[in-house]
TrEMBL record:
Residues 1-141 form the MARVEL domain. The chain crosses the membrane at residues 41-62, 74-98, 118-137. The gene is SYNGR2. InterPro entries: Marvel (IPR008253), Synaptogyrin (IPR016579). It is a multi-pass membrane protein. Keywords: Membrane, Signal, Transmembrane, Transmembrane helix. Residues 1-19 form the signal peptide. This is Synaptogyrin 2. The keyword Metal-binding does not apply. Pfam families: MARVEL. One of its GO terms (cellular component) is synaptic vesicle membrane.
Length: 194
């Protein structure tokens, strides 16, 4: 739905967000003649649409990413971007609503429905992107818990390399048997016979 909401907002503003008076051929933004209102709505709509496509592709390939650091950064990017875009959609909704309330009815000949649709779907986008924040945070917490549960610090417990026999002290170390301590003479030495 996020792609659809973003598509509706920017297509309504591109299609019928600019109009002209019958006496003039100069186009102006339908939102109180404020060009910034139309540009803002189109800008966040286009960027949100492209970001939705990008994060959809990331979601498809996410299970195939084996590096936990890469996964962590992708989830954090999704979390931060969703938070930012929730805020930007809120600003966009307030800005468009404010400019629409100051728009004179005589300036709007066609495009009033498109303006209302852009306002409505920017409002819906606030909650949709806010829901994405919750999902991204849940995914982040799952990843942190999985990492903490499956990770064991190798230096935490140092196992003994060999188990010892009971009642044997390690203080009385003996030389291993069958060691030859005599100096070997120069020359040929036959191989040992076992």
């Amino acid at each position: 739905p996020l792609q659809v909401f973003a598509l509706i907002v920017f297509s309504c503003l591109v299609g019928e967000g600019y109009t002209n008076l019958p006496s003039s051929s100069e186009l102006f933004c339908i939102f109180n003649h404020n060009e910034d209102a139309c540009r803002y709505g189109i800008g966040i709509g286009v960027l949100a649409f492209l970001a939705c496509i990008f994060f959809f592709m990331v979601d498809i390939y996410f299970p195939q990413i084996s590096n936990t650091t890469d996964r962590k950064y992708l989830v954090l990017a999704d979390l931060c971007f969703s938070g930012l875009w929730t805020f930007l959609w809120f600003i966009g909704f307030c800005f468009l609503t404010n400019q629409w309330s100051w728009t004179k009815a005589s300036d709007v000949h066609i495009g009033a429905d498109s303006a209302r649709a852009a306002i409505t779907f920017s409002f819906f986008s606030i909650f949709s992107w806010g829901l994405l924040i919750a999902f991204a945070y849940k995914r982040y917490k799952m990843g942190v818990e999985d990492f903490a549960r499956s990770y064991i610090d190798p230096s935490a417990e140092v196992p003994t390399p060999y188990s010892s026999y009971p009642n044997i002290s390690h203080d009385s170390y003996q030389q291993p048997p069958f060691t030859h301590t005599a100096e070997t003479p120069e020359g040929y030495q036959p191989p040992p016979v076992y």
